[in-house]
Amino acid sequence: MGFTPALHAEWIKTRTLRSQTATLGAVLLTTVAFSLLAAGTDADDADPLFSAFFGVGFGQIAAVAFGTTAVAAEFQGGALRVSLAAVPRRGRWFAAKATAIALPVLAVGLVTGLLTWAVGREVLGGAAEGFGTAEGLRATVCCGLYLTLMALLAAGLTAVLRSGVATLGILVPFLLIVSFVIGDMSGSVADLLPDRAGQVALHSTWDGALGPWTGLTVTALWTAAALAAGAWRLRRRDA
Fold it and tell me: Which of 221, 40, 219, 51 is nearest to 135 (CA)?
């Protein structure tokens, strides 16, 4: 089976699983809800752009769950053996799986970013003058890209660990606890963590060495490493 039919098959899996659809919806709802709360309570914040996009830090958990469950489902009930029977080339299958994860997350992420920006400007009112249209558009696009990269990072790690529970057990505490604890360590190695680096694009100002696009590049490198490790693991171990 070629790449296009493999991608189509993986897309069918994604859109027919209610849990996957619900998780994508959670990306949007969680991000907008927490951003609305932050914008409403931090109207005088020095960085109104980040207040408007604050919910991305919580919406990424749903994106991570989407990428994790999409791959973890293959390790249950012999599903991976069936998939590889149809697509014997494991690298091709994993590329199709990753693409089937990335495309819907990117689409939902861009819609989420646009809606978050619109809601944030409305709630912030005059404080929204602290960032212009160009910054808002940049944050909107980067929101979609960042959520996609985090979903793919989770997918790669799940392929390595072959367990959705183990992946979520690592990533969720890391994103919700560890990153917040070291969040004030600007200028240190903490700036190179995947979530910290990627979220620079959601700020109107930043103190570290990374900028919006260099920060996303760092996140992309983490994601690429996770996907490469996942592909290697798939090739080295039996289904």
Answer: 51
Gap between the Cα atoms of 148 and 171, Å rounded? 15
Which residues, other chains included, contact 133 with Cβ-Cβ below 8 Å and sequence gap of 6+? none
* Distance set, CA 117 to CA 48, 49, 144, 197, 229 (Å): 11, 8, 12, 20, 35
Q: Give yes or no for a contact between 201 and 213, defined as CB atoms under 8 angstroms apart.
A: yes
* Nearest-angstrom CA–CA distance, 37 and 182: 23
**For 87-130, what is each residue's pLDDT tens digit?**
778 888 899 999 999 999 999 999 999 999 888 777 776 655 65
Cβ contacts of residue 191 below 8 Å, gap of 6+? 185, 197, 200, 208, 209, 210
Amino acid code (one letter) for 231: A
Q: From the DSSP assignment, how many helices (H) and strands (E) are in the chain?
A: 11, 0
**CA-based nearest residue to 139, from 86, 221, 216:** 216
Q: What letter does residue 190 receive in the DSSP assignment?
A: G
Both tokens of 84, joined, read: 């590889």
DSSP state of 168: H
Distances (CA, A) of 6 to 26, 29, 86, 92, 226: 27, 30, 8, 8, 21
Taking the model in full, what pTM does it have?
A: 0.91
